[in-house]
Amino acid sequence: MNGTERSAIKAGLEVDIVLKQDQRSGKLTRGIVKDILTNSPKHPHGIKVRLADGQVGRVKTIIAQP
Prior knowledge:
The chain is mainly β. It has a single domain, classed as Roll (SH3 type barrels), CATH 2.30.30. It is built from no helices and 4 strands. A 4-stranded antiparallel β-barrel has the order 1-2-3-4. A hairpin with an 8-residue loop joins strand 1 and strand 2. The chain is globular, with a radius of gyration of 10 Å. The two termini are 15 Å apart. The mean pLDDT is 94.
């Protein structure tokens, strides 16, 4: 599942995000969602989230439900 719809993302989900500095390379970072930072219901590049470890990026893939 991709991360372009805010309704699909909840705190506690395991996701792959792309960090700002990794946007060119497309390198993904895996983590657990702590906060959802995007207010709009959809975003074409992915919903922006903060992971439990403090990293911020846009969701590319939802891995697992809690």
